[in-house]
Amino acid sequence: MNHIGRRVFLLVTTLLSKLDTRKLSKSSELHRLKRKHRCYDSLSHYISEDPRSIAQTTCSWYKVWGTSLAPAALANYLLLYIASIEPAVASIDPELPVLILQRIIEILRISYDKKYLENTMHAEILEFMAILIAVSADYLVSYATIKSILGLQAQKIDSLLCTIFDFSARKELAWDSSGCLRTTLLPSLGEVSKALRRLFGQALKLGSPNAFAREFPIPGHITDLPWVCVLGRMSYLRNSNQCANVVCRNKPGPQSRPSRCLKCTVASYCFRDCQSAPWTHHAFPHKRFCKVWSLVAPVWPRSIEALDETRAAYESEKGLCKDKENGSSSWIDDNLYLKRLADEVGGEKAMLELRKILEGVDVALKRIHS
């Protein structure tokens, strides 16, 4: 059953990534999709008209069979179908956030013992973040919906969050080379923790937030952006030595050493034909993101260690003072540094596109200082 579930949810995830959600209300677009994707004829009702079915089915398969691709399908749906997010979130099983947090703890423990985050686990955490933000963000869904999902499990969820935050107190974070813990996981979960206290803290007597949760004052508008997943995928591809063409990568037999794309230096290809073949990962195809990656690559570090080194050199050169009392900078400080660095890369037209990616940082700062 788990194998069947994986195939079904892989199909749904692939289909979701190929749809233009802005045109789904047009009958011509629906007919075009049904001609192009035969499976859409049977799935169109559930995707465009009944979002409750997607949420209920993914929750059931994950609870009963532990199908790993079920949360991936749900996360893609929540990210792409913002107009249908209220009924979809309202249909999520209240046990799903607990199961997700328990899985994150399991991933972190495994990763900590092995001293690195596996690529599949990194992607899994990013998908979990989209779901957790959706069920706790009061600017996306109503209070009644959040209460129905998190209300009964709030104390258990808070306990699991505290366990996860304890990982940030550990100094040996060499395994977190992609920066998933610091730049994605903790800031996102910090928002979930604050939402719990804002909505249920007084009634359930949850107490003050965890010390590490207070270190990440990030409004949810940043953490729920699809760019978080895009940058995570970029980090994975840049650390991979495999051909980014899925067809080529799955062929048996030895392959030549892949060469990086000269434009973005992110994706790698084995042969000349691979780069013009159907392009790579269904959700983050190279053809779609190469231009963006070519802009981000010079200023987005390959690891948190590289970010710390380059930022220290920048601060020393510019005579900036670092807050020694608070230690390392927060996620917002890191992105501010990247924005300052991006301004010096050059090319006004290119910088306009890059600023679109980082515009959430500006919104966050205005809200924090207002």
From TrEMBL:
MYND-type domain sequence ranges: 245-290
GO molecular function (one): zinc ion binding
Keyword Metal-binding: yes
Gene3D superfamilies per UniProt: 1.10.220.160, 6.10.140.2220
Alphabetical UniProt keywords: Metal-binding, Zinc, Zinc-finger
Keyword Metal-binding: yes
Protein's recorded name: MYND-type domain-containing protein
Species, as recorded: Pterulicium gracile
